[in-house]
Amino acid sequence: MQNEHPFIPYHRPVLTEEELCENSKSFYEAMDSRRSVRDFSDKPVPRKVIEDVVMTAASAPSGAHKQPWTFCIIANPELKKKIREAAEEEEYRSYHGRMSEEWLTDLKPIGTDWKKPFLEIAPWLIVMFKKPYDLIEGKKHKNYYVAESVGIAAGFLISAIHQAGLVTLTHTPSPMNFLQKILERPANEKAFLLLPVGYPADDATVPDFERKPLEEISVFYK
Ligand code: IYR
Question: How much distance in Å is there from the Cα of 149 to the middle of ligand 1?
Fold first, then answer.
């Protein structure tokens, strides 16, 4: 029986092995130069760039193509201040009792603390919300693989920001429900990630980290 939903042809240019190797290597190298940055410049970034990176994120695959996400995009200084204050309040409590000693020790090399000035300094904040269900005319419609879908979209977003020439940070103040309140989001939207976006500060630094080599992170089965 033929599927009643339409299908359209899909092609990609067939590349040579050399071209494949060149493409995969240059993309790997570009992505490997990405770092999570906490020191932002306040230099403005055009809105068009933010629109494009968000549309890149929204090109991610999702369960049953439900696209279970909302991107809240904030440049307004008062809103950024409110978000910073609420995030720092939660983070203060996390760093002073809610996080285990082991967790705090694991964070030492990253040098984080409860203060989050980047939430006001970065020209843009993108807050990703996940939608466990859609609300259509007051009726709940379940979405599928929501955490996986928004996780993949976040990966696309981070990649797009990096490839545009900007920096970001996957910030997860915990708990994050203050974002739903401040941004006045409906009940079916849960804050997932908060990403400041901008240029790095001139004197920005990052931890001297190395990534695990291929042999350690992969197993090839012959
Ligand atoms: N959310 C806190 C703590 C934190 C947790 C992990 I895991 C990190 O990799 C980094 C930070 C904060 O943003 O400071």
Answer: 22
Compute the distance from residue 39 Cα to the ligand 1 centre, in Å: 15
DSSP notation for the chain = ---SS-----------HHHHHHHHHHHHHHHHT------B------HHHHHHHHHHHTTS--GGG---EEEEEE--HHHHHHHHHHHHHHHHHIIIIIS-HHHHHHHGGGT--S--THHHHSSEEEEEEE-SEEEETTEEEE-SSHHHHHHHHHHHHHHHHHHHT-EE--B--SS-HHHHHHTT--TT-EEEEEEEEEPBPTT-------PPPHHHH-----
Q: Which residue lies with its CA nearest to atom 11 of ligand 1? A: 112
Q: Is the pTM of this model over 0.85?
A: yes
Q: Could you identify the atom of ligand 1 that is nearest to the CA of residue 174?
A: 1
For residue 52, give the nearest of 217, 205, 163, 216 by alpha carbon: 163
Kindly tell me if the per-residue pLDDT of 12 is higher than 90.
yes
Q: Which of 35, 83, 112 to mutate to test the pocket of ligand 1 (most atoms within 8 A of CB)?
A: 112
How many A from CA of 1 to the centre of ligand 1? 52
Tens of pLDDT, residue by residue over 150-165, are 999 999 999 999 999 9
> Could you report the per-residue pLDDT of 60-103, keeping only the tens digit for each?
999 999 999 999 999 999 999 999 999 999 999 999 999 999 99
Q: How far is the CA of 116 from the centre of ligand 1 (A)?
A: 11
